[in-house]
From TrEMBL:
Keywords: Endoplasmic reticulum, Signal
Pathway as given in its UniProt record: Protein modification; protein glycosylation
Span of domain OST48 N-terminal: 20-178
Signal peptide span: 1-18
The keyword DNA damage is assigned to this record: no
Role this protein plays: Subunit of the oligosaccharyl transferase (OST) complex that catalyzes the initial transfer of a defined glycan (Glc(3)Man(9)GlcNAc(2) in eukaryotes) from the lipid carrier dolichol-pyrophosphate to an asparagine residue within an Asn-X-Ser/Thr consensus motif in nascent polypeptide chains, the first step in protein N-glycosylation. N-glycosylation occurs cotranslationally and the complex associates with the Sec61 complex at the channel-forming translocon complex that mediates protein translocation across the endoplasmic reticulum (ER).
Compartments where located: Endoplasmic reticulum membrane
Any one GO BP annotation for this protein: protein N-linked glycosylation via asparagine
InterPro entries registered for this protein in UniProt: DDOST_48_kDa_subunit, OST48_N
Topology class, membrane: Single-pass type I membrane protein
Protein name: Dolichyl-diphosphooligosaccharide--protein glycosyltransferase 48 kDa subunit
Amino acid sequence: MCWLKALSLLSVIVISQSMETLVLLDNLSIRETHSLFFKSLQQRGFQLTYRSADDPSLSLVKYGTHIYKHLVIFAPSVEEFGGNVNVEAITEFIDNGGNVLVAANSNVGDAIRELAAEVGVEIDEEGAHVIDHMNYDVSDEGQHTTIVADSENLLAAPTIVGDRTTIGPILYRGIGMMSVTRGVL
């Protein structure tokens, strides 16, 4: 009997450590252009399910239970998610312990903008770029929107930026975002 209890406890632990990951894409070519990132996730045990962000059959929940533990959204221009997925469903997913990674570009759609606002991030207006008059690249065409970030100033996060000691400067040209702090009562 004790063995049966231990086995059931182990199965609960294994289920809670699920690596099931839903990857929502603007288009399936992103799967190829970002293949190194997706491969690194798979090498760490994540089971990836790729779907179009506006797929009408999308769902994060089945029979009251979350289907996935992780959600990756590489669909910056999506105006509306498909199926049962919407900003409310994603914030509920987060509140219930789900992990979410969102990538954006300078053409952010309403769905991503609204999701960002729900978690305290304000995204600049569509088509805008970060401007830096001190750290712009020499190849910049005068707008100072191609920014050079020296590798020593990068976050120590090899999964995101690689080994800071072996890479050169990073060029960034993209939209600005700001963390919005809300008043705490």
